[in-house]
Amino acid sequence: SSAQPAASVSVPQPIKTIAVVGAGTMGLGIAQLCVQHGFPTILFDLNADILAKAEVAIAAGLGKLVEKGKMPSTEREAALARLRPTTDLAIVQADLIIEAVVEKLAVKHELFQNLAAQNAPQTILASNTSSLPITRLAAAVPHPERVVGMHFFNPAPLMPLVEVISGVATAPAVADAVQALAEKLGKQPVRAADAPGFIVNRVARHFYVESLKVVEEQVAPFDVVDELLEATGFRMGPFRLMDLIGVDTNFSVTSAMFEAFHFDPKFRPSRIQQQKVDAGHHGRKTGKGFYDYSS
Ligand code: NAI
């Protein structure tokens, strides 16, 4: 047909500047990648302590690259100079904004609405969500055609995969731009459909849910489950991995997927995981999860 895109559809500009919103486990790694590959990058978090920790972690991450001979030390300084950490949301303006805040739809909605109000309609709003539908996320945002999923894996500087997810409204040019950017960041982007958990988290969910059931039913203690699965070739057992991911984040992802699959019991969140979250034992980031990291 001769259908033309509607006049209101915004075509993305070339991506020259990036902002990462949320400086937790994922945000700091994504920001490191961006500055490492030459992009001036704003890093925003509400929490000044988390932001300060993120700066230290990024400096250390770049330092490791220098130690391994993968980056000259002068380049480390240049990369750090590209990073602009801030707790002032009003200055968060860029060609591409990648959000990596808590896995809560209402929080992400409000954030995207605020960002839409202070950025050009062409600004791409990408979400690092593990489980929330991109279509639903985009629906409440002006110019939903620029909302897209850009799902990195943990740790973001090291894991090559990025899932690029188009919602119903996402403009093909926007998904293409994000895919090309992922390649510039040295990643292997893969297109995924906007289904609950996309691809990797949907399949991997059972690695966590079933392992938690094994422990709940006292079939084996959690460290034995880890030991056994690691002995079969998994790089990390499920409990060590949940501590790396963040027990709270992993729980939120399971909860969102349980809901999205209409409470299919195979995705039911675990009571012992809920208790860890309630106790503030969120894994490595809090010094304690299933294992203790305080020493
Ligand atoms: P996290 O809990 O480590 O960090 C979240 C950060 O967001 C915190 O620093 C918090 O202060 C900040 N925050 C909360 N509300 C905010 C707001 N309104 N504005 C700005 N900052 C705000 O969480 P994590 O694990 O980094 O997860 C972030 C996102 O990335 C989630 O959507 C999660 O599903 C996704 N993700 C997580 C992975 C993981 O392994 N942890 C892997 C891939 C995706």
Automatic annotation (TrEMBL):
MF terms in GO: 3-hydroxybutyryl-CoA dehydrogenase activity; NAD+ binding
Sorted UniProt keywords: NAD, Oxidoreductase
Transmembrane feature ranges: none
Domain 3-hydroxyacyl-CoA dehydrogenase NAD binding: 17-194
Region Disordered: start-end pairs: 274-295
One annotated GO biological process: fatty acid beta-oxidation
The keyword Electron transport is annotated on this UniProt entry: no
Record's keyword annotation contains Oxidoreductase: yes
UniProt binding sites for NAD(+): G22, A23, G24, T25, M26, G27, D45, E103, K108, S130, N154, K285
Marked site: Important for catalytic activity: H151
Domain of life: Bacteria
InterPro entries the UniProt entry points to: 3-OHacyl-CoA_DH, 3-OHacyl-CoA_DH_NAD-bd, 3HC_DH_C, 6-PGluconate_DH-like_C_sf, 6PGD_dom2, NAD(P)-bd_dom_sf
Residues annotated as domain 3-hydroxyacyl-CoA dehydrogenase C-terminal: 197-293
Protein name (database record): 3-hydroxybutyryl-CoA dehydrogenase
Organism: Hymenobacter roseosalivarius DSM 11622
